[in-house]
Description:
Elements: H1 44-52, H2 59-69, H3 76-88, E1 90-93, H4 101-112, E2 126-130, H5 134-141, E3 147-151, H6 162-175, E4 179-183, H7 186-190, H8 194-207, E5 212-216, H9 225-237, E6 242-244, H10 256-273, E7 278-280, H11 288-301, E8 314-316, H12 318-332
Parallel strand pairs: 1-2, 1-8, 2-3, 3-4, 4-5, 5-6, 6-7
Helix pairs in contact: 2-10, 3-11, 3-12, 4-5, 6-8, 9-10, 10-11
Amino acid sequence: MRAPPRPPPRPWRLDSSIVAAPTLDTALPAETAAPGYLDATRDNAALRAFLHGLPGVDQVGVEARVATLSTRSIKTTAKAWAIDMAIGLIDLTTLEGADTPGRVASLCAKARRPDPSDPSCPSTAAVCVYGDLVPYAVEALSGSGIHIAAVATAFPSGRASREVKIADVQDAVRAGADEIDMVIDRGAFLSGRYYDVFDEIVAVKQACGGAHLKVILETGELATYDNVRRASWLAMLAGGDFIKTSTGKVSPAATLPVTLVMLEAVRDFAEATGRRIGMKPAGGIRTTKDAVKYLVMINETTGPDWLTPDLFRFGASGLLNDLLLQRHKLTTGHYSGPDYVTVD
């Protein structure tokens, strides 16, 4: 895998004086969220027909393709490039009930300078926290260019009224989040109420204002690759800027086969519409070896244009430490002890 030049991230940070996000009464009409697919998204029957008309996923083929890509070996300078690339693609995340302002401040310091002993180490793409902790991340990351993501819409279950979900998004955006990670209503999706899911994504996207929207499918609950493909297309048609595998709270979380199915949907959507959607595997990605497999898969499926934080992220916390240890090994020729990195 060659190392293409990495463009600087396009800033989309919201101004701190952002006005209130729109209410439900001013939500974007659903039909305007999917230009070129108005007929397919006019009602539940049309959306069902479209989603079930997508080609079925060849499970054997997907898993064989993953097995082939996973055998690719990356050495020396290419490995060093891949490690730095992976660090720059991380949404460094803490989503625990015991999170505190101090923990968020510590995480933000690590996002800025992952390796304090080496200023050449890149910063992470974003920090992801609960909405009530966004102000502390805003303070800690001021002027860094690192994005601030907040989970919303009754994360991780997605079980709340539409009004509550919209208010959750608005609060996070007003606090300074420039990325919102929403969860879809899996119960509605699995019940065949596709238009309810579609319409809610449209409303959340409108409530985001200028913030980017990542739509979490929670693929571990979708059961089949066909459902993963359908949910991916639904989220993209509704205006999501990213599609994301998981909350990290359900097992299985991100897997290579599911990621391949989602990347193929992203590729096909871009070819059909001209719009590039980002993709974020999250949960269970802990080692440099795992991260490299994902980078190879992106390069071979959507192409090197997606090797940028604008179009790909890792949702992870523990992954960064392993990347730092491997990076130090390449620099010094020996492995460092676990105390070389911070325990988050």
